[in-house]
Amino acid sequence: MWSTFKEWYRKNVNDRLENKIDNALVFKNRQVEICGNHYFLGKGTLTDLPDIVKVSRAAGRGRFKWSRKRFQLGLRNDHDRFYFILRYHDDW
Hints:
With 92 residues, the protein is α+β, with helices and mostly antiparallel strands. The chain has helices at 2-24, 49-59, 68-76, and strands at residues 30-34, 37-43, 84-88. It contains 3 helices and 3 strands, in the order αββααβ. Helix 2 packs across helix 3 (68-76). It is elongated.
């Protein structure tokens, strides 16, 4: 009986939760305007890694808690998280 319930739960509840998470992580890059300035808002990729590391170091005042490799793993693990990037005067 327990295995029947687990199978029902997986099909009816867990799959729906995973689908909601997947849909929540869908993001399309876009142009945004903030205080009259135009910016590019996008989902970070591995090509953004040097800039992400640089910003993180600057924000941490030299106390760098996350390694470059940790950010790299986070950028690759895009099925349950992502990084936003915001660039001023960025061409698409």
